[in-house]
What does this fold into?
Amino acid sequence: MALPALFVDVDDPSPDALASLRSFPIAPSCIVHSGGGYHAYWWLDEPTADLDTARRVLRALASNLGGDSLSVAQSLRVVGSVNTKPSRAGAVCHLIDLNAWRYSFADFTGLLPKPQRVRPSSPFVLSPASIAHLSDSLLRQGFKRRGDWLNGACLYPERHKHADHNPSFGFNTRTGYGYCHVCGSMLLKDLCAVLHITQ
It folds into this structure.
């Protein structure tokens, strides 16, 4: 399986949203009015089979452009089709822009968060007490418990375009690891440092 294009779904029909798409440094190959906003597509000169990186690039495009999370199955609004969502009142999808521009997949990897430099630190022991202290701190901040996970806003909001108002972070109370859909995996020692928790 290979992906022939990258895409973003912006549920905002305003002229400002369209202007933002058109002025994006990597201009979309195609923009479709979806009935509730815009779908933008970037044609790739070679389909990519690196679906893991592609998922991260799609999240980065959505973050940069105020888009929603999409799966490949949800990504296509065919021109002339009817948007059947009840809130769309039978809107017909129509073409806004169509260009012949094609891009290398590598053109988009610069959108991904830069790896954090590893800084020397004092030894940190992965202990049940540290996990418990961090869990208590997150629960006090309003995180929601779902099985072994505590879910809420990322502890690094500065890495997110909208400060992660749509929470993307989870902390696993069994393993002591955190995960954010934008930032990736996080170690317990780093999470404790952000919240000023000491052993």
Residues 51-65 form the longest helix (15 residues). The mean pLDDT is 85. Helices lie at 15-22, 51-65, 128-140, 188-194.
